Amino acid sequence: MNSQTVLVTGGAGYIGSHACVELLKAGYHVVVVDNLSNSKSESLLRVQHITGKSLTFYQVDIRDKQALTEIFDKESPTTVIHFAGLKAVGESCEQPQLYYHNNVFGTLVLTEVMSNANVKQLVFSSSATVYGESTFPQYTEDFPLGAINPYGRSKAMIEDILRDLYAADKISQTNSPWKIALLRYFNPIGAHESGMIGEDPNGIPNNLMPYVAQVAIGKLPQLSVFGDDYPTRDGTGIRDYIHVVDLVKGHLNAIQALNNHCFEAGGCKAYNLGAGKGYSVLEIIKTFEQVTGKLINYKISPRRTGDLAECFANPDLALKELNWKVEKDLHDMVTDTWNWQTKNPQGYI
Ligand code: NAD
Ligand code: WQD
């Protein structure tokens, strides 16, 4: 059993709540800090119900330095998983200051509090959106960065800040160097197999999977397929979809790696978390129809600005250094999404 305390920022959200389940199951003490700006505390009640274990929750904004310092003093975490952030690409284009303030300044405050408390193990939620455009659709971690919207740039800036923090330790030859895993997620979908926790988007979803689920259940009339003239096998966009439970298991493996010889002298390293293969929009629709027995009403619409034709991970480094790879397939992802959607048609209420 594990007696380490992990502080989880954004732990009430979609990915964070699934991480809390796996952390509790693995025996960690879990402390969640979330301002509930995009989540409900109900998710945490359900996490505790699923696991039969309790966690500690603080409804606090990570930009509140004093409150965060008090939490670190009281809870003495050894590691932080940092999920807290705003994530809507369109909103980030309309309100860039909000995104930079929340995501970048929030991380500055968090890392300052961590430094002061000498807590220097961090797993950060980065994103495949940090990569620049490529003619080759499979990304390795050394591919040049070049995010194309404020959300993506906020993630890229945070990665830079974290790399600089680690580099500063090397200069001052501190004996407790930063140990940081930057996890670049591809397209997380799905839900916990219990159907008790899942993705609960505000308003009309931006992302494909929750949109399809809401069409299937009759909440939305029709899906627009953004473009069928891409140079892909069926003309629609291809993405690397990853089950959220596989994704969060990658975080537990990352914590183990930070604790072992790989990071003995400190480090700040990026890892792709993806399956390493992609599915098209039409393949997602077809699988959804097979799993649910429902026809998905869709129409072909113009391409969405900023979308790539195809994008998927090369996850070899995560396998090699984190001993992690996906275990679930598209059928599992769709089945679990549908289970969550049908059990919670209005999301968390
Ligand atoms: P989410 O919105 O469900 O969860 C984020 C949580 O952070 C929410 O509970 C929100 O209330 C909280 N939060 C936001 N700002 C905060 C602040 N200043 N102080 C305290 N809490 C705050 O999103 P998610 O899908 O679970 O994503 C988690 C992380 O993973 C985010 O950083 C996101 O950018 C990143 N990510 C998500 C995806 C995806 O497709 N879902 C892909 C790549 C990266
Ligand atoms: C997937 C495919 C669309 C909706 C976004 C963010 C990214 C990341 C994850 C955080 C594409 C098509 C979609 C619809 C469609 N988040 N589509 N109709 O664009 O890969 O990534 O979410 O870091 O930052 O940009 O995911 O789910 O929006 O789209 O046809 O109504 O589905 O064109 O090919 P995307 P997505």
The main sheet comes to: 7 strands, parallel
Spatial strand sequence of the major β-sheet = 3-2-1-4-5-7-12
Mean pLDDT over all positions:
96
CATH class: Alpha Beta
**Helical fraction:** 40-55%
The small-molecule ligands in this entry are: nicotinamide-adenine-dinucleotide, UDP-4-deoxy-4-formamido-beta-L-arabinopyranose
Shape: globular
Please indicate the count of domains. 1
- Provide the structure class: alpha/beta
Radius of gyration: 20 Å
In N-to-C order, the SSE pattern is EHEHEHEHHEEHEEHEEEHEEHEEHH
**Sequence stretches where pLDDT stays below 50 over 5 or more residues:** none
Tell me the number of strands. Answer: 15
The CATH superfamily is identified as NAD(P)-binding Rossmann-like Domain
Please, how many helices? Answer: 11
Could you give a short description of this structure?
With 349 residues, the chain is of the alpha/beta class. The protein contains 11 helices and 15 strands.
Description:
The mean pLDDT is 96. 48% of the residues are buried. The protein has 11 helices and 15 strands. The chain has 349 residues and is α/β, with parallel strands linked by helices. Helix 3 (65-75) packs parallel to helix 5 (96-116). The strands form 4 sheets. Strands 3-2-1-4-5-7-12 form a 7-stranded parallel beta sheet, sandwiched between helices. Helix 1 links the parallel strand 1 and strand 2 (29-33). The protein has one domain: NAD(P)-binding Rossmann-like Domain (Rossmann fold, 3-Layer(aba) Sandwich), CATH 3.40.50. It is globular. The site of nicotinamide-adenine-dinucleotide (NAD) has 27 residues, from helix 1, helix 5 and strand 5.
